[in-house]
5-methyltetrahydropteroyltriglutamate--homocysteine S-methyltransferase (Carya illinoinensis), 760 residues
Amino acid sequence: MASHIVGYPRMGPKRELKFALESFWDGKSSAEDLKKVAADLRSSIWKQMADAGIKHIPSNTFSYYDQVLDTTAMLGAVPPRYNWNGGEIGFDIYFSMARGNASVPAMEMTKWFDTNYHFIVPELGPDVKFSYASHKAVDEYKEAKALGVDTVPVLIGPVSYLLLSKPAKGVEKTFPLLSLLGKILPIYKEVVSELKAAGASWIQFDEPTLVMDLDSHKLQTFTDAYAELESSLSGLNVLIETYFADVPSEAYKTLTALKGVSAYGFDLVRGANTLDLIKGGFPKGKYLFAGVVDGRNIWANDLAASFGTLDSLEGIVGKDKLVVSTSCSLLHTAVDLVNETKLDKEIKSWLAFAAQKVVEVNALAKALAGHKDEAFFSSNAAAQASRKSSPRVTNEAVQKAGSDHRRATNVSTRLDAQQKNLNLPILPTTTIGSFPQTIELRRVRREYKAKKISEDEYVMAIKEEISKVVKLQEDLDIDVLVHGEPERNDMVEYFGEQLSGFAFTVNGWVQSYGSRCVKPPIIYGDVSRPKPMTVFWSSTAQSMTARPMKGMLTGPVTILNWSFVRNDQPRYETCYQIALAIKDEVEDLEKAGINVIQIDEAALREGLPLRKSEQAYYLEWAVHSFRITNCGVKDTTQIHTHMCYSNFNDIIHSIIDMDADVITIENSRSDEKLLSVFREGVKYGAGIGPGVYDIHSPRIPSTEEIADRINKMLAVLETNILWVNPDCGLKTRKYSEVKPALKNMVAAAKLLRTQLASAK
């Protein structure tokens, strides 16, 4: 019985690649040092899979930055601004495309489907001269072979590559990217023939765009592409791998009829409907790679249930044609549970990270072949049972969300009541929440965590920091203040650590982009709030000033989308539980005299399902969750939310439906796109603060520049609803950048107030 892994995390069990990359970028180590760390990671991964008994082991799923960028390098599709002169692409050009350099900006980065991973978007057009410029796929195949491991080289399929690209600057927005197919296939053929010559017997093309809503023209392109590749692929077993959702029935027909293809991979965790299509008909003599082990979560597989699914599939495709696989690459899960020495033992028994998932895949394959490891299966069954019955998972006291929750009055009535109470000028100024986290501040938090300083010393240090931040904002004459969040490590972890139903790992890192990793909390049980979380700090800060002080909370949808979520109940139920916990906090802040409360929903759009047909339902429960948090406050309490911009023109109606009093938006990199929504006549009556400067850059914008941006906004938005603020929190910036930038921001707002008053 054969087994297969779609792909594997690259960072290493202790983020070895991250540290090697950053050291190389900082000029502290050589290219050779970086290559050695990478080679050691690759060989240990291949060896680990071979030792576990995996038959189809992937190669070329390792990357120094991103797999789509690797494909761009393979095709020589380097944008002209990087002055590449041909030849094999090295680190200099590769990392310039990924990160920019002193003279030119990086290529755009965007989310990989609906995961929290980001890829580098290819910039294509009619003039791109494609050439075979990176031999990485072949080199890595040979490298594994020299170690005695025969791998399956993995390439991003040609059609998905084009569908994930964008027209380069200066190319018509309507340029048909798929028209470039004929130009890139010759390079794919070269790669394939080199892989054949090197001894490869299998090749995997990842074509995940097949799970999207594709029209017949796009589906036809798949047919054309593989028909064109057919003769080059002869003599190889070709696997087309899909993941992240069901394959729609039209796409299934196209896929299973592709020329020269011998195997199809499906995500049977997020794509359970695909099972019905397979049962309705699977091409004779072809292989089915059944993705039954979840590559996107950290829960141990229910082996008995997976075995049942595989058993039924075996009846359809035949014993020798069924291969046990992961639902997608294991890139989206943590690396190895072995490194979690602090996790509670019971919770640990419910989990499986990438290394454990490899073992699960092999155990299922062996069981199907009649060599079931009874001990492994029975300990798995025991863990599944303990998770179902554990009182830690089910908390009877947790409330269930009832019918829809809304504030009693409409937004314009509330804004009037709030204005009487807050008495703000027009174009009020505020910031998004965090202030710079200095080395000193991080040290205080670290020492407190390690019990090197007492709680009293810690509280004193944090209070001192808050009073500095409050004084700075008063000196700058900002209207609505924040406490600066000096006590917080992360906008999700900080709350998760104070809610029940959450667990935290030490090394559960997952790659977000490049060398940046995130460590998502694990939501394993019913969520509730045992006691107030932020009230002490917010009321302490409010007592230091007569100006309004914003309470600062992370919203339920963002907490959900940035965590590993329990898979034993629908996601919306977990989201409603988090919302009810945040609602308790909002009401306690209000009781403590906090009149402005911000509830961030940075990741609302990140949870949007891939398929149009499922989007409305997600948006409905996500918006409902947000409204639950603040449906119980008085009209005079002003509710803010903050969102990071990501093409939300398409969800603007849901954003309006959130019914916040004020929304601040990260938009400075895409001003025009955002403002065009309002130009096109979307009626928006609540307060709105599109970011007036980009905090992701160390640049300090001038007063004139900021005033100019505010004027552009005033052209499409009413004077009485516009707020003036940076586009995101200031945590990552230095005070030497923050002070002058905020000073210019306040000056710009005052300048325009004067102009507007005299115009009246």
Remarks:
- The two ends are 81 Å apart (CA to CA).
